[in-house]
């Protein structure tokens, strides 16, 4: 019997954001936590968790040399840099066009504490179902609001807070994002574009530590997590 080929998977990191809510002189993905920038930890966790066939990082060309040094430090050799776009979707689209793999695992540059189990489980589910995300169920009561007033209370058992990585068939995600670009549809994550194109998306549980650094108030927790996850530096 002919042995079935294992699907190839790329790790795609959109790192072109300027971090408007971060309110600092440095982009949040390059903010130093201990000895290394946030992006270093995000790439390290992905690289240590799964044998990705390539890394594709979307960023502004002015940051290419710095990001290349991070990849070198981590020993990532199958590595490509692509120009960032005006939006996250445009940055991911540019990276996808350069990817040569069957599947793409898109992970936030500012999400440095994803666990190995989360990465492995999401990649496995993405390959099985064609698309998968990780995340957590809402713990608090969820209110839908409009104009500063509550419209209704949602059933929190049906509310899932999306994290990354998000793993999809590369060709299907590429087509979904190109469709969204053509029709000028704005989405805040890849899953939304994938869903809008008519695809089903499976979910996997993430962890509370898989935070996205967004505001300065996130830094104390991130510093504590660096000590927990990377105590050896």
Précis, in short:
The chain has one domain: Spore Coat Polysaccharide Biosynthesis Protein SpsA, Chain A (Alpha-Beta Complex), CATH 3.90.550. 34% of the residues lie in helices and 24% in strands. It has 7 helices and 11 strands.
Give a quick set of tags describing it.
11 strands, Spore Coat Polysaccharide Biosynthesis Protein SpsA, Chain A, seven-stranded mixed sheet
How are the secondary structure elements laid out?
Blueprint: E1 9-14, E2 32-33, E3 36-37, H1 38-49, E4 54-59, H2 64-74, E5 79-83, H3 88-98, E6 103-106, H4 116-129, E7 131-137, E8 142-146, E9 149-154, E10 160-169, H5 170-182, H6 190-196, E11 202-205, H7 219-229
Parallel strand pairs: 1-4, 1-6, 4-5, 7-11
Antiparallel strand pairs: 2-3, 6-10, 7-10, 8-9
Helix pairs in contact: 1-2, 1-4, 3-5, 5-6
**CATH homologous superfamily caption:** Spore Coat Polysaccharide Biosynthesis Protein SpsA, Chain A
Distance between the termini: 47 Å
Structural class: alpha/beta
Helix and strand string, N-terminal first?
Answer: EEEHEHEHEHEEEEHHEH
Beta-strand percent range: 15-25%
Separate helix tally: 7
Radius of gyration: 18 Å
Task: Identify the CATH class.
Answer: Alpha Beta
């Amino acid at each position: 019997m002919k042995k079935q080929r294992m699907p190839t998977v790329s790790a795609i990191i959109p790192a072109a954001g300027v971090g408007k809510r971060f309110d600092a002189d440095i982009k949040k993905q390059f903010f130093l936590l201990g000895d290394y920038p946030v992006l270093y930890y995000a790439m390290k966790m992905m690289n240590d968790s799964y044998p990705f066939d390539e890394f594709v990082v979307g960023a502004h060309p002015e940051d290419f040399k710095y990001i290349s040094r991070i990849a070198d430090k981590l020993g990532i050799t199958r590595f490509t840099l692509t120009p960032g776009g005006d939006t996250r979707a445009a940055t991911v689209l540019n990276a996808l066009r350069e990817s040569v793999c069957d599947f793409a695992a898109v992970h936030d540059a500012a999400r440095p504490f994803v666990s190995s189990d989360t990465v492995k489980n999401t990649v496995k589910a993405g390959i099985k179902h064609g698309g998968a995300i990780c995340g957590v169920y809402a713990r608090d009561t969820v209110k839908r609001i409009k104009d500063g007033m509550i419209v209704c209370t949602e059933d929190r058992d049906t509310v899932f807070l999306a994290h990354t990585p998000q793993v999809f068939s590369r060709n299907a995600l590429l087509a979904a994002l190109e469709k969204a670009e053509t029709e000028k549809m704005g989405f805040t994550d890849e899953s939304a574009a994938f869903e809008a194109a008519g695809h089903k998306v499976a979910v996997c549980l993430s962890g509370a530590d898989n935070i996205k650094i967004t505001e300065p108030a996130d830094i104390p927790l991130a510093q504590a997590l660096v000590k927990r996850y990377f105590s050896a530096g």
